[in-house]
DNA sequence: GGGTCGCGCTTCC
DNA sequence: TTCCAGGAAGCGCGACCC
């Protein structure tokens, strides 16, 4: 995705589209002969005046502000500052140069217009006709015939149709692409068993061993691999070969489609290659970074990164500076990194703008269910839930909460998501998303696995429906809020503090439960929590009390009633909840009620239960944090200044 | 002062 | 006619906790 528009170009009043910074005129493979001016004008005309356009202008202004801020910082640098940073930069360059590894040969393979090509394979009548995969709102990719009109990936369909009225739209079908992706991966595996799949249609292969074992040159291997892929799938691909992944990726784009480019593993060749390479060709340098580097420092090619090394070290954070300098040296990853674990999972949907709270809540329900189902498929439980919102004006907000416990059920997700959303209301939205992160290491829930909860149910001799199963799963993760019925209170209690229990004991009392020791052991493996198991095996069924059993007006209620001081603060624990948080207040009330039930229980049977103060503190902490954060939230017009993003920290160098 | 968290921003496909 | 995606990851900062 190259961004080749010029900043501050032309007379805006005569040709306003020229200053509309769109990516749709970028030089992408297959778009060489495109009338860029025409494309830019049409995109501008169709976007002008829309909310999207207004937001783009805001972002543009934001970027300019950021550029000005960095300029101002640059202006403050004295000669001695610059010579100081030059020394640092020179040292850094020497260090980076010492890491150069020319012993490996990397190949980057990129399928040509993958989705479109797969669709053409499925419907040969599409061959030779301009076609795009996607819909009116957005297209995922376009074939080369469509690209000639300026149609490209990430362009809204209605603009694409304007550019190319005869454009054929084909809906996205990930099943198909996954199948063909699987075929290509079979081929890749023959060349590098540890190849790295970058996406469905891209992969990195370390072909060093293959080359030496087969006595083939990298060029021959690339040719053979492309042929094999074509034979296996009927699709074409392009390949790039270089001494590292960064360069291989750049190379694969040079002779697209159905071509290849090999960069020799020699320092001179690399430096020559890099010398005129536009910075935007580098993965990780997007529109914003490119503009900053160009406008502030006049850096357009990778080589110029080295020429301006002192300024880079002076004005960017350490990791950014390291990255920019290594780009200037043509360095990139040469090792085969460990397979990284998934760090987050999300689900988001765009819809017609609405501020109807019932409708928004329903959307949230759907998202929570989808996310929960996806998480369960992979056996994941997460701690941090992030709500993403896009307002009708295209302003994006995220709000997150980190819970004391791991959750995966849709009910738990929805409960916390609802709290996050409530704090933003009223608001008119066009998109909502939920993301879960901070996954547990060993507390994965296997949907087929028997759990302690199953055990309890078995002991009770009652069956539970799937909905209850969800509740039970959240039990295991210790989250009890939001459940009014059908919950074993003591069970819930004992699970609640799971997170704060020292898990490192090592004994096997749990086996005493006899025929159910399998489930207990399974759980033990999952949560490594013997304290809980011990308690849970102290004759749970004898201590089961349900909320349903609670009658208003009982002694439990009267002894120390929960009162909201100043209509805000809980009289028992001090937690603060605004009056509008009706459900939360009810839950909180239930919480204290349960606490008292437990007290009574403990005094009756002298069983030892876990102290729960920590949970309350966490609750309070989260609440207070939430309030503090919200005060400075962008929803009230306060953003983190964009120039902070690249600002250098004090600890640098 | 170091570690963690929340969140905005950027990038990629 | 239709009117700008969705999923994932990483970085950097301020705020806050210990």
Automatic annotation (TrEMBL):
Cofactor entry: Mg(2+)
Record's catalysed reaction(s): DNA(n) + a 2'-deoxyribonucleoside 5'-triphosphate = DNA(n+1) + diphosphate
InterPro entries: DNA/RNA_pol_sf (IPR043502), DNA_pol_Y-fam_lit_finger_sf (IPR036775), DNA_pol_Y-fam_little_finger (IPR017961), DNA_polymerase-Y (IPR050116), DNApol_IV (IPR022880), Rev_trsase/Diguanyl_cyclase (IPR043128), UBZ3 (IPR041298), UmuC (IPR001126)
Pfam (any one): IMS
Protein location: Nucleus
Record carries keyword Nucleus: yes
Domain (UBZ3-type) ranges: 563-600
Keywords: DNA damage, DNA repair, DNA replication, DNA-binding, DNA-directed DNA polymerase, Magnesium, Metal-binding, Mutator protein, Nucleotidyltransferase, Nucleus, Transferase, Zinc, Zinc-finger
UniProt-listed PROSITE patterns: UMUC, ZF_UBZ3
One of the record's GO molecular function terms: DNA-directed DNA polymerase activity
Primary residence: nucleus
Gene Ontology CC annotations of this record: nucleus
Residue ranges constituting the UmuC domain according to the UniProt record: 106-286
The EC number(s) this enzyme carries: 2.7.7.7
Chain residue ranges for the region called Disordered: 600-641
Residue stretches of biased makeup (Polar residues): 615-624
One example of a Gene Ontology biological process annotation: DNA repair
Family in the record: Belongs to the DNA polymerase type-Y family.
Protein name: DNA polymerase kappa
Organism: Buddleja alternifolia
